[in-house]
Specification:
The complex is a heterodimer of chains A (about 120) and B (about 650). Chain A is mostly helical and about 120 residues long. The two termini of chain A are about 30 Å apart. Chain B has about 650 residues and is α+β, with helices and mostly antiparallel strands. Chain B has 21 helices and ten strands. In chain B, helix 5 crosses helix 8, helix 10 packs antiparallel against helix 20 and helix 11 runs antiparallel to helix 12. The longest helix of chain B is centred in the middle third of the chain and has 33 residues. The chains are: A mainly alpha (about 120), B alpha+beta (about 650). The interface between A and B is large, with 50 and 58 residues.
């Protein structure tokens, strides 16, 4: 009873509160690399250029631009390496292919190790 | 004079390492007097390494600027603590520390070697070969004792990032104690593989060293994250930076190893897999050193400027090819393991754990290496950052938490629902209630609620299990703490693991909460200005400046209050070091039970400041969880069993 009630509260609560409504500016800023940093996003970096770009993103969002438009804008201005989440195409696919291949091989290897239960009355 | 003594130490250690390798191989091929033949070279190796490290430290402390390393990394004004820490803060010195730690581990591993000990002798040979590489590196490309014809009057001073916070002094030694420690299980594994020795003897003998290495690595990573938080002024602690990833990857694979080692020791399974994991862990520590120490991250094309990068890369290649070749040639000899009876068993959960952890490792490795390889081969640049890493690491983390909750109370061989369900029923209920309370509290983030549910599930399972065992042992109330303590002490392997699990669960909750609810405000203020944010009030009283011997400190005096209550006076600053182009910030962090208030000074010009204020919730939980995780790893070494029992009672109870 408690379990069901608790589960209901969690499901209803999470469904009611739209988790996606989070700050679009913050989300985009986390995807755009600060041009002078090795790996930090303009959301994380404390440099001035990162602050400027973040303010610019806020203006673009307020201007009604879509997320993709904003990503494309920065990719064309600074090159695609400005995107911290490389678009999954071409050479970048390796970033998805390697873990996926490992997962498939791993699951296969585990499955191969399982033998059917011996009929000694187990279960 | 000091330089000469230090270099002599390196040469002596190098020669001793050669003898250790040769004698190790000889005793491996025909054991008989391993102990006698190895004692002297091992002691000389340790002595030589100690002399080299001691000479470097002495050179630093007495300001012998005729030594290039001292001139580049120390100055008369550098405070003593940082002068000492400079011994491992730069490339050459860090390799000397590496050598000393390796010599230390070689010595303690040697102490377990007996005369007709094929396994131990082979392991000594492997450790000797690794030592030959590192001391060879010190004698040539990374010589820390090169001297200058004309000694400068003063040195350039310690690395400003080091001088800014003592954490940078403790982080590298902890990390190296972890990295280098994995050489011991690697060496014994390779020895067992080469000798075709079946069974788990190599794991039994290296179990404590794997745990020591893993625990130090855990602490090292945690200290690195704390340093990033305390010094860099960005309010965060983990950036998925290649240097951070370089330490995380071996940790993930090493974690898989210490778990799968349990399966082999208890059930005789996964022999070849354990070899593979220990080879991978060791190789990844070398890869991590290459990534952090060669400069390859800063620029693919500049790492050849010093010979250290190519040398490390070659060593990495040799180790990988030799180990995998040996594995391909010999693995069938050691691998003869019973198959898994059912996936619904402790072994099954361990396999899931291994799959998840190694997949995690592969994922981080791919994201770390892909930009470097793409640039090296095509000249194009690709960035891989937080959004990419988070996409997979968040679900993997949750899956790991789930396995962590179920695994420790799942019986070996076959887990029947009738056994498992009573152990999980109450924890599941508690976890869901905790999740529901979080939602009622107003949290609408799926990640946070999931972390709370799974984290409290892990902790509840462990506590219920302990409680259950205590109740079986005695029903008298007053005895409960004493019995619980006895249980936890008598089976330190199992309960150490559970302590670590509680730590990881706390870390997971802290990461989710701080990652989701961190807020940053940026304020421009003039002296006397007051700003309000989220119920707090900050007044910027005045700027201050201070001349320390080794730096110039420029900061802001702030007063923090909440309503009418004055909470604290804070002094974040920007520190100028003579040898740094940019000022290094010292944020002022006020840690509280619910959140950290983090004040980072961004700019101070003509009295006007730019101030970043972060509210980071539950940060203390992250540090406490990380330390608890390491304590769990050390637990079997911290508590001694009263006597060596054949099979401790708690494990029996688990198998019911």
């Amino acid at each position: 009873m408690i379990t069901v009630a608790a589960l209901a509260v969690i499901v209803v609560g999470l469904a009611a509160g739209d988790g996606r409504s989070g700050d679009r500016v913050e989300a985009l800023a986390a995807e755009i690399k600060c041009p002078v940093c090795p790996t930090e996003s303009v959301a994380d970096s404390t440099t001035q250029i990162a602050r400027d770009i973040k303010a610019e993103i806020a203006a673009l969002v307020a201007d009604g631009r879509s997320d993709d438009e904003i990503r494309t804008l920065y990719a064309s201005r600074y090159g695609e390496q400005i995107l911290l989440d490389p678009p999954p195409r071409g050479r970048n696919l390796i970033l998805w292919a390697v873990p996926a291949a490992f997962l498939i091989v791993g699951v296969g290897a585990v499955a191969a190790r399982v033998r059917p239960r011996v009929p000694d009355g187990a279960d | 004079m000091i330089a000469l003594a230090g270099f002599a130490g390196i040469v002596v250690a190098l020669s001793a390492a050669v003898v250790v390798a040769v004698q190790g191989v000889r005793e491996f091929l025909s054991p008989g007097a391993a102990r006698g033949h190895l004692r002297l070279p091992v002691l000389v190796l340790l002595g030589g390494a100690a002399v080299a490290f001691g000479a470097l430290e002495l050179g630093l402390v007495v300001n012998d600027f005729s030594i290039e390393y001292v001139a580049n990394n120390n100055s008369r004004d550098t405070p003593l603590l940082f002068t000492i820490a400079s011994g491992w803060a730069a490339l050459e010195g860090s390799i000397v520390l590496w050598g000393l730690v390796l010599a230390g581990y070689t010595y303690v591993a040697f102490r377990t070697v007996t005369d007709d000990d094929k396994l131990g002798a082979g392991a000594m040979a492997v450790m000797g070969i690794v030592a030959v590489f590192f001391f060879g590196l010190m004698a040539t490309a990374a010589n820390p004792f090169t001297t200058l014809d004309v000694a400068p009057l003063d040195g350039r001073g310690a690395n400003p990032l080091l001088q800014n916070n003592f954490l940078m002094a403790v982080h590298p030694p902890l990390l190296y104690l972890g990295f280098v420690g994995f050489t011991v299980p690697f060496a014994f594994g390779i020895s067992a593989l080469a000798g075709g020795m079946q069974g788990s003897m190599w794991l039994e003998r290296t179990r404590r060293w794997s745990l020591v290495a893993w625990s130090f690595l855990t602490l090292g990573i945690a200290m690195g994250a704390l340093w990033s938080y305390q010094v860099l002024g960005w309010g965060g602690y983990w950036a998925w930076d290649p240097v951070e990833n370089a330490s995380l990857i071996p940790w993930l694979v090493g974690t898989a190893f210490i778990h799968s080692a349990i399966v082999q020791r208890r059930r005789g399974m996964l022999q070849a897999w354990n070899m593979m994991l220990v080879i991978a862990t060791f190789t990844l520590t070398i890869l991590g050193t290459f990534l952090t120490r060669s400069g390859v991250i800063a620029s693919v094309h500049s790492f050849t400027q010093s010979a250290v990068g190519p040398a490390l890369l070659s060593f990495l290649g040799v180790i990988t090819v030799a180990s995998l070749g040996l594995f391909a040639w010999r693995a069938h000899v050691v691998a003869s393991s019973p198959r898994l009876e059912s996936l619904a068993s402790r072994e099954g959960v361990f396999l899931a754990n291994n799959l998840l952890l190694t997949l995690f490792g592969v994922m981080v490795l791919t994201g770390t290496l892909a930009p470097i390889l793409v640039e090296a081969f095509t000249g194009d640049q690709v960035s891989v950052g937080r959004p990419w890493f988070d996409r997979l690491s968040v679900p993997l983390g949750f899956a790991l938490l789930l396995a962590m909750g179920i695994g420790p109370v799942t019986p070996y061989r076959v887990a029947r629902p009738s056994v498992l369900w009573p152990r999980l029923r109450t924890p599941i209920r508690l976890a869901l209630v905790a999740g529901a309370l979080t939602v009622l509290w107003g949290v609408r983030s799926l990640n946070v609620v999931a972390a709370v549910v799974l984290g409290s599930f892990v902790i509840a399972v462990i506590i219920r299990h302990l409680f259950d065992l205590v109740q079986r042992a005695s029903s008298r109330r007053g005895e409960i703490p004493a019995i619980a303590w006895r249980l936890v002490r008598n089976d330190p392997g199992y309960w150490g693991g559970q302590i670590a699990h509680i730590g990881v669960a706390l870390v997971a909750i802290a990461i989710a909460v701080s990652g989701t609810f961190s807020v940053r405000h940026t304020f421009q203020m003039e002296p006397g200005d007051t700003v309000d944010f989220d119920g707090y009030t900050v007044t910027y009283s005045a700027p201050f400046a201070r001349n320390d011997p080794h730096r110039f400190v420029l900061g802001a005096e702030l007063e923090l209050s909440r309503g009418a209550r004055r909470l604290a006076e804070l002094r974040p600053s920007l520190n100028d070091y003579p040898n740094a182009t940019q000022a290094i910030p010292s944020p002022a962090v006020r840690t509280g039970l619910t959140e950290d208030l983090y004040f980072s000074l961004v700019r101070l010009e003509a009295g006007a400041i730019t101030l970043d204020v972060f509210r980071n919730p539950l940060m203390w939980l992250l540090w406490v969880g990380a330390i608890l995780t390491a304590v769990g790893g050390f637990w079997p070494l911290l508590v001694r069993r009263p006597q060596r029992t054949i099979r401790p009672e708690p494990e029996e109870a688990v198998r019911v």
